[in-house]
Amino acid sequence: MDSTLLYIVMALGVSTVLNLFLKRMGVSSIIGYIITGTILVYAFDLRYLNDSHSLEYVGEFGIVFLMFTIGLEISLEKMGSMKKEIFLNGFMQVGFTALVVYAISHYVFGMKEISALVLALAFALSSTAVVLSYLKNSKEIHSPYGQRATGILIFQDIAVIPILILFGFLTTGGDHSIGIILRDTALSAVVVIGLLFVVGKRVMTWLLKFSASSEVDELFMGSVLFIVVGASLLASSMGFTYSLGAFVAGMIIADTKYHHKVEVDIAPFKDILLGTFFIIVGMKIDVVFFMNNIILIVGIFALVLVLKTIIIYVLLRITSEHSTSLKTALALSQVGEFSFVIFAVAFSGNLLEPELGALFILVVIFSMMVTPFFLTRINAIVDYFTHEEYMSLDVKEFSTRENHVIVCGYSVVGKFVAKDLDMLEAPYIIVDNSPKHVQEALDRGLEAYLGDMSKLSMLEALHTESSAAVIVTLDNIDKKRAVCEAVLNHTKDINLIVKVTSLEHKNTLKDLGVDIIVDGKKEVARVLVERMLTCQLKYNIK
Fold it and tell me: How far is CA 418 from the centre of its chain?
């Protein structure tokens, strides 16, 4: 027990010091956690813990809490609106990537059929932990490419279930027919989802309402932890992944009025456990083997990166714009943490040679270490290759800009706002994350930029703190809230005017303290009455 406590203290100390140092260099904390794991393994000779199932369970719950927070972002209504991103794009990405990797590994490199299948399905997955953490922290989860990447990652997490079922069937040598296995899995899925949405929804809503009314933060936090862990255990007992149960629980709470409070309260637990997951990943690094095979590992990673980028870009380009497709493809080009699970099942069932497995695990780890550096530079990479003038903002041009109006969003309402500002001869700029809308503004001779105003770098570049006002005309409530939060966090001394279209949207923004919220329906009603009063009555009513 004393040794365990020492390891925990050392992990906390080393990771904290490392991440403080890396933070100054602009490096993701994920790298610090992975390096911490490697340091602990070699400092205390803990390589025997690499096969510890208890340790893996603890680490896996970092992914569980991450998926729960993602579920909070995606209600049933939003899930329905993302059917194409999740099921169409996700299915095509996993399917085509697996086919291409299988063909290359089997027919080009001569791998055995089963080994090639394991590799293909493992490499078809991307890193939910790394990518979604970045998208949430950078607020780009609300951008077009962030939405597409999120949808595909959700499908990948769901796809882990049939993949593991397939490997279980191959491992048992066919003790049960694949039809029976699929039937039992479908029945289990119906039971899990039914329990969570029919019974669980009532229990969760009552529990959150009761604990919130007590006004005791510890009770509310305890209720949230009970919901997350309970839903995860229920899904696991039915043969699914822990994270799937947590994701569904998050979706259920997303439809309640408590989802913002839950997301804020759960963040520290998610971050700590996610850090634990990456420490465990670092513990799997065999430094000697890595150094002896570094060229091969980097070569395989580069091949996978190029292949996945091309495949995802081509698939998305059919329905999406060039920059959105390229950003999404680059964001999902790495290999993910669920590949560890697939390789572990393949090892236990003798479906993959140990030497190949050790090599591929290091490829996955190397991929997860490189990805945080890569993700932060996606916008710059796309800007370089697209060569579109409005893709990047000339910061120097705004160094002396003040008293300008920033119009966030150039769809229907944004266009009318711009016309009225022209009539007033007020100086303004337009910011939108849709290249189509930005191009429309440029074609009209307006000053417009492609960007996401929920990002601090964009707010600083636009000198938002010196602007006369920020007018938010976006329709999507999640994007709208993200922009408002970012603006108010950046500067409180600002005139923030936001358009809403429903009471639900208005309530969602209530806690932010926005200066002016314009209710579109109320304003239309007011104008209708004003127009009526200015009309001459056709008949004199006595």
Answer: 33
Query: For 537, which DSSP code?
Result: P
What average pLDDT does range 478-505 have in this prediction? 85
Angle 252-255-259 from CA coordinates, rounded to 5°: 90
Q: What is the C-alpha to C-alpha distance for residues 398 and 462, in angstroms, rounded to an integer?
A: 6
Cα dist from 99 to 140, 298, 318, whole Å: 30, 22, 19
Q: Is 159 helix (H, G, I), strand (E, B) or coil?
A: helix
Confidence of residue 500 (pLDDT cuts 50, 70, 90): confident
Phi, psi of 403 (to 5 degrees): 60, 30
Q: Closest Cα partner for 314 from 335, 331, 329?
A: 329
Closest C-alpha to 38, from 290, 270, 272: 290
pTM of whole model > 0.90?
A: no
Give the per-residue pLDDT at 390: 43
pLDDT, mean over the chain? 81
CA dist 517 and 509 (Å) reads 9
In the block, which residue shows the tokens 């979706």?
Answer: 251
Question: pLDDT category, 310, cuts 50, 70, 90?
Answer: very high
Closest C-alpha to 132, from 114, 118, 151: 151
- Rounded Cα distance between 307 and 290, Å, is 23
State residue 232 phi and psi, 5-degree precision.
Answer: -65, -45
Q: Which amino acid is at 503?
A: L
Q: Name the amino acid, one letter, at 2.
A: D
Q: State yes or no: pLDDT of 503 exceeds 50.
A: yes
